[in-house]
Structure to design on (759 residues):
């Protein structure tokens, strides 16, 4: 209870002599320093808001405009063409102000208005420039003159030293495609999946939709696009993620892995100390907007709004729909270990604890012998099961008293940490099987030792390995991957460890111990039912993770083929039977953009898979790859298929209109769901001198019961990592062993899927 006493700023007792007041100087000092830290953050946010608000200009440019206007006035010329005199006439000033002073004030007001008009004009010009997308359809080495001029203009209007959110006001809105174009692209995408009879029926449904309710739905969608920043993103978040009433574990959440071949330290608490410190260093950069905005071709900015809810965020269950709640900066994290939850403060006297101090605190939790409270051990299973039972339990049993205080502590924490007693990673006599177990552990764990509602949970294993599990509604995988890359690099290359494997630095042993959260959980809370639902899902998931190193991006690009298109063609060839294939593409070229679907199974890819002769195969492969690249670029530039049809379907439901075409389109299962996780911060890693220090990427569960989930990351020039998931319960699904053989045997089999075949 020593920590509780230290937290009380003053105590008093009433005696016959009067009131005896005793102040705690340590507590008062803590309060004062916390207030100073809070005000510093507010001032930083205010400063960044001003800088971002006037971008691409700078606050100092206002002074330049004012001086220029005043200088021209003293040369007896009027750059305002009489406006300064008009302002002076209507200036509400006292009679004591001289005429010259009034003229100066009027000039400053005119200069400010002129400055704001210039900012608006520059933003408008930049927004129009960023609406040009022809550059994406041109080869990088064969850029047209128009595109070269466009690039120069973008750089001129982009300003200098942008902050993370500087471009937000200049990004164009996501355009609404025409009904005709979307329907045409849709019919083309499903042609290889249907026989003649089925395709003819779908063509008739599409024509009926286009000539009847389609235009009415389109009108409402265009109206929304004029009003909202993005006509897709809010509905996508609500209806695809938050309104789902099934478990989010496996079905929505995804994971990221540690380094594949090395473990920086075998000490669990030390690994946690370094990386938790790195997480908060990243949050500090995020709050100060010091993270550089992502630029394509070093010139075209991408939307950064998804970074806003990275920390201090939690998904809150509801009976009809969940919500995403975001708080201001928390100074603590919540740590789970052996059925207990601990509140660990990472700031002491407004100072971020050093890695060695965090290691010391984590070790205290590992050494704590206290047992879990009744019902506490499996409490996290509520976040892994169905959403409605969790929402009802939260309202009934966690809305007051000690349970509410402890639950608030978890939900408002910066992020969640799980200390796992298992050892994971690529190890033992069967490294392939150990990688599969590692993936399953990161995706679902024991179903109760993660808090799946938190924006992300970091898992630290007994042997020093770590990993991350993320909730999907607040952001997409590349945003979290940016954080994960920074953390891994900072942990190993910036902070490091001493010879014994501990974090560097000294420890302040007077740090208050982590506070164990208390619970009073009645037996009526149906934790066991949620755990049973989650456990059934976890047991049904099959995973296969492997790193392919026979060839990689370098060899593929020599064949003048996109590495992503090459992999997608390999997946189609491995699948053999054609199915609706989903590849995630980002739409962050637009404000508040998230993702669009690339339908990878096309007429061209199916023709390639059917081909047998080498010469024909080579020609069809290049055709299929070029088609895939075209589809990908169309998706990135707002000319996709599925988000437009999804929003039309939402509008139809609001209006109470039935569309057989939209109903059938939205009910089609994605039996092959794929996603690439690119490495965004290559400069943080030295792949030449330290090639083993690279993450294996991450993965997700299958979207359909009879389908596959395939995640891949292209690392350097000679490595491709795959994460493949499916379900044991479906007899028709097997692991992508054929894919593995296609790659593994590419150098020995005559007609195999090797880049040499297409040179």
């Amino acid at each position: 209870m020593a920590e509780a006493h230290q937290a009380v700023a003053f105590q008093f007792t009433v005696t016959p002599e009067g009131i005896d007041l005793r102040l705690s100087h340590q507590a008062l000092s803590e309060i004062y320093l916390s207030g100073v830290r809070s005000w510093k953050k507010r001032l930083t946010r205010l400063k960044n808001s001003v800088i971002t608000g006037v971008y691409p200009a700078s606050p100092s440019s206002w002074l330049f405009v004012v001086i220029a206007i005043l200088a021209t006035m003293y040369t007896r010329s009027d750059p305002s063409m009489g406006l300064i005199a008009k302002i002076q006439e209507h200036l509400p000033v006292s009679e004591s102000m001289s005429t010259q002073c009034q003229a100066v004030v009027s000039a400053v007001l005119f200069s400010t208005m002129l400055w704001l008009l210039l900012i608006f004009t520059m933003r408008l010009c930049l927004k129009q420039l960023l609406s040009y997308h022809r550059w994406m359809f041109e080869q990088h080495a064969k850029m047209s003159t128009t595109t070269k001029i466009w690039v120069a203009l973008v750089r001129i209007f982009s300003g200098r030293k942008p902050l993370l959110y500087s471009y937000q006001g200049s990004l164009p809105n996501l355009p609404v495609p025409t009904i005709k174009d979307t329907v045409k692209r849709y019919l083309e995408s499903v042609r290889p999946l249907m026989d003649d009879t089925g395709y003819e029926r779908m063509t008739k449904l599409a024509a009926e939709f286009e000539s009847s309710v389609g235009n009415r739905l389109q009108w409402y969608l265009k109206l929304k696009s004029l009003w909202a920043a993005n006509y897709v993103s809010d509905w996508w978040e609500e209806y695809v993620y938050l309104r789902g009433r099934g478990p989010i574990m496996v079905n929505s959440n995804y994971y990221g892995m540690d380094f594949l071949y090395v473990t920086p330290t075998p000490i669990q608490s030390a690994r946690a100390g370094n990386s938790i410190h790195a997480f908060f260093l990243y949050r500090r950069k995020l709050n100060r907007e010091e993270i550089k905005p992502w630029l394509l071709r070093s010139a075209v900015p991408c939307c950064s709004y998804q970074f806003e809810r990275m920390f201090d965020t939690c998904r809150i269950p509801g009976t009809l729909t969940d919500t995403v709640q975001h708080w201001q900066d928390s100074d603590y994290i919540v740590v789970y270990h052996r059925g207990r939850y601990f509140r660990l403060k990472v700031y002491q006297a407004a100072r971020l604890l050093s890695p060695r101090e965090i290691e010391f605190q984590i070790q205290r939790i590992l050494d704590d012998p206290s047992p879990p409270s009744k019902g506490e051990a499996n409490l996290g299973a509520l976040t892994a099961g169905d959403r409605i039972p969790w929402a009802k339990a939260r309202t009934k049993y966690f809305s007051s008293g000690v349970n509410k205080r402890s639950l608030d502590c978890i939900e408002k924490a910066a992020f969640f940490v799980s200390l796992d007693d298992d050892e994971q990673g690529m190890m033992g006599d069967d490294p392939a099987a150990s990688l599969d177990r590692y993936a399953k552990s990161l995706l679902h764990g024991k179903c109760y030792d993660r808090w799946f509602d938190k924006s992300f949970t970091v898992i630290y294993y007994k042997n020093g390995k770590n990993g991350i599990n993320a909730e999907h509604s607040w952001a997409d995988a590349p945003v979290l991957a940016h954080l994960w890359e920074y953390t891994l690099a900072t942990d190993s290359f910036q902070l490091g460890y001493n010879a014994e494997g501990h974090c560097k630095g000294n420890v302040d042993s007077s740090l208050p111990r982590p506070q164990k959260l208390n619970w009073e959980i009645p037996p009526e809370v149906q934790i066991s039912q949620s755990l049973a639902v989650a456990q059934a899902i976890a047991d049904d998931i099959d995973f296969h993770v492997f790193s392919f190193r026979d060839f990689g991006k370098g060899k593929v690009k020599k064949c003048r083929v996109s590495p992503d298109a090459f992999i997608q063609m390999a997946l189609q060839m491995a699948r053999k039977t054609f199915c609706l294939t989903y590849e995630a593409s980002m739409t962050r070229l637009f404000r508040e953009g998230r993702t669009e679907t690339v339908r990878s199974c096309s007429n061209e890819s199916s023709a390639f898979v059917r081909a047998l002769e080498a010469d024909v195969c080579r020609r069809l492969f290049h055709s299929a790859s070029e088609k895939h690249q075209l589809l990908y670029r169309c998706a990135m530039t707002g000319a996709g298929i599925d988000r437009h049809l999804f929003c039309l379907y939402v509008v139809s439901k609001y209006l109470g209109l039935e569309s057989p075409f939209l109903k059938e389109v939205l009910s089609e299962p994605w039996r092959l769901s794929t996603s690439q996780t690119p490495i965004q911060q290559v400069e943080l890693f030295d792949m030449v001198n330290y090639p083993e220090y690279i993450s294996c990427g991450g993965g997700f569960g299958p979207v359909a019961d009879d389908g596959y989930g395939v995640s891949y990351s292209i690392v350097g020039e000679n490595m491709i990592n795959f994460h493949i998931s499916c379900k044991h319960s479906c007899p028709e699904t097997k692991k992508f062993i054929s894919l593995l053989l296609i790659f593994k045997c590419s150098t020995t089999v005559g007609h195999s899927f090797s880049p040499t075949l297409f040179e």
Q: What stands out?
A: The two ends are 72 Å apart (CA to CA).
